[in-house]
Every structure is written in structure tokens, then in C-alpha cells.
Write a structure and sequence with these properties.
This protein is α/β, with parallel strands linked by helices. It has a single domain, classed as Rossmann fold (3-Layer(aba) Sandwich), CATH 3.40.50.720. 53% of the residues lie in helices and 11% in strands. Helix 6 links the parallel strand 5 and strand 6. Pfam families: adh_short (PF00106). One of its GO terms (molecular function) is oxidoreductase activity. Belongs to the short-chain dehydrogenases/reductases (SDR) family.
Length: 317
């Protein structure tokens, strides 16, 4: 009798577990369809309803430039913010020649101190800003933390993390007064797990992830959608793959942003591209943490050795 009861209990628990996992997989599939397939069919959010202007930082290359161009393609006027006036003018000229929108350029080096932000409020206050894309970032040196120069740590914190805080603080009040707006913080999938030899960079990306979730919880009821975008590898200058053709798992910046835009208003925390979402799901739901830790150590150790070899080869030439 006892054996029969135990078998019944185990069968019930097994059935509940299978039902739970089946529902979980079904929800993931439906979420993927909603996030990536429906926008592909043209059923995406009308981004102009948030406001007539979009602000994009770090917009002269890669993902940032594609955000600026594709938002202009959706009919939004664009504020371009970056540190190179020459490159800003090139992007401005391209956008104005391709799309019937207005542009405004602002030269700022986000690696500086608080003075960088002093006049930004004045320059942006009279604009109907509906979308802010905090994209500016600097790549990490693959190195042990103790071997990083203090100047590099300081600049990386300013560029990768503090810039998003300050830009959001400047733009958010206007969005709240209009009760509509979108803040997109471009993070990275490497901010989702501890990464040896990438400590400061990964920590800044993890900060953006948590910062976005906190803000969304705080302001979603006020009509503000705060999104964290977490790409894996994209063929850009920062990843050293800018001139390589896009693939299913390493898309070009243009391919990546086209899908990422479709997730605005749909997914608060997204990998932005179908294959990156698949990689993230497999990595963090199937592979145990201790296995991932070994993989990351091997991956970044190998990458560092390759970087050192290339640096020595270039120096000798």
C-alpha cells in the first residue's frame, strides 16, 4: 500500500513537472514569434507615436549608426551625439540625403567628467524626444583587473555606465511630462555572467541591464518603456569583424538593429536578434554555471593570447 502511495505521489510530481516545462517551452516559442516574427511581417510598433525626435549616442559607427539611420527611416528626426565632429557630419549628411527628416549634431566625449553634460539639457530641452538610445561604449582590454590602468577603468565606467545614467536623467523629465517615451540601453550578453579577464567591461554591461529593469519597474506605469538590449557578437568595428559578411549567429549591425527595433514596446529585456536570443536561452538555461565559468575562462584566455601575438607581430612589422 505504501509503495502504491509513493508511486502515485511520484507520478503526480512528474506530471506537474512535465506540464510546467511544456508550458514554459510553449510560452518561449510564442514569445519568440511575437518578438521576431510579427515585426518581420510588418506588425511592429509605430515608433513616431512616442515623439518626433530620437537621440542616439555613439552614433558614428556600428550599432549606434544603424539605430540612427533606421529610426530616421521610420520618420523620426535624429539628434546625433558622438565625439568626432567630422564623423558626425558624415552621418548627418547621409541621413539627410536619404530620409526626409531633420538632424542635429552635438559633439561630446563621454569619457570626460561631469562637465560633459552641463549644456546638454539646454540643447535638448525644446525637442519632443520620444526615443533615447544609450549606445555609446568602449571595448574592453582583455586583461587581469590588477593589470588595467586606473585611467582605463575610470574611462570605461564613464563611457559605458555613467553616460546612460546622465543622458536618461536629462531626457526622462520631458518624457514624463508627455507621458510617453522609450529609453534603449545597449548592453551586452557578456554582462549576464561573470567573465574572467573582462571584469570592468562586463560589470558596466550588467549595470545597464539592472539599471534598465529598475527604471522600467519605476516608470512603466507613466508611459515610459525602458529596454535593455543585450547583443552577442555583431559584425562591427568594436568586435573587430566590421568588414566580415553577416551570418545567422553574427549578423551585421544593419541586420541586428532591424530586428532589435521590432522588440521596442514588446520585450523589456532582449537579445535583439533571433539567434542571439536562442544562444542566450541555451547558455543560461541548459549549461550549468560551473561549466560556463570554465568555457569563459578558456575563451577569454585564448582571445588574450591571440591579441598579444597580433600586437607583437604588428610591432615587429
Amino acid at each position: 500500500m505504501a509503495d502504491g502511495s509513493a508511486a502515485t505521489v511520484l507520478a503526480v510530481f512528474g506530471g506537474v513537472f512535465l506540464l510546467h516545462r511544456s508550458l514554459y517551452f510553449l510560452i518561449q516559442i510564442l514569445n519568440g514569434i511575437r518578438t521576431f516574427l510579427l515585426p518581420y511581417l510588418g506588425l511592429s510598433t509605430d515608433l513616431k507615436r512616442y515623439g518626433s525626435w530620437a537621440v542616439v549616442t555613439g552614433c558614428t559607427d556600428g550599432i549606434g549608426r544603424c539605430y540612427a539611420e533606421k529610426l530616421a527611416g521610420r520618420g523620426l528626426n535624429i539628434v546625433l551625439i558622438s565625439r568626432s565632429l567630422e564623423k558626425l557630419k558624415q552621418v548627418q549628411q547621409h541621413i539627410e540625403s536619404q530620409f526626409s527628416v531633420q538632424t542635429k549634431i552635438i559633439v561630446k566625449d563621454f569619457g570626460g567628467n561631469a562637465e560633459v553634460y552641463q549644456d546638454l539639457d539646454e540643447q535638448l530641452s525644446n525637442l519632443d524626444i520620444g526615443i533615447l538610445v544609450n549606445n555609446v561604449g568602449m571595448a574592453s582590454m582583455i586583461n587581469r583587473f590588477a593589470d588595467l590602468k586606473i585611467e582605463v577603468c575610470w574611462k570605461m565606467l564613464n563611457v559605458n555606465a555613467l553616460s546612460a545614467v546622465m543622458m536618461t536623467h536629462i531626457v526622462l523629465p520631458g518624457m514624463l511630462s508627455r507621458q510617453r517615451g522609450v529609453v534603449v540601453n545597449v548592453s551586452s550578453l557578456v554582462g549576464s555572467d561573470p567573465m574572467p579577464l573582462m571584469s570592468v567591461y562586463c560589470a558596466t554591461k550588467a549595470f545597464l541591464d539592472f539599471f534598465s529593469s529598475c527604471l522600467h519597474s519605476e516608470y512603466s506605469s507613466k508611459g515610459i518603456f525602458v529596454q535593455c538590449v543585450r547583443p552577442a557578437f555583431v559584425a562591427t568595428k568594436m568586435t573587430g569583424m566590421r568588414n566580415k559578411p553577416g551570418t545567422a549567429f553574427t549578423p551585421t549591425a544593419d541586420q541586428y538593429v532591424e530586428q532589435a527595433l521590432g522588440t521596442i514596446g514588446v520585450e523589456q529585456r532582449t537579445s535583439g536578434f533571433w539567434s542571439h536570443s536562442l544562444m542566450a536561452w541555451v547558455t543560461f538555461n541548459i549549461i550549468p554555471a560551473w561549466v560556463r565559468n570554465r568555457i569563459w575562462w578558456k575563451l577569454w584566455s585564448t582571445a588574450r593570447k591571440m591579441y598579444i601575438r597580433m600586437a607583437k607581430s604588428g610591432h615587429q612589422q
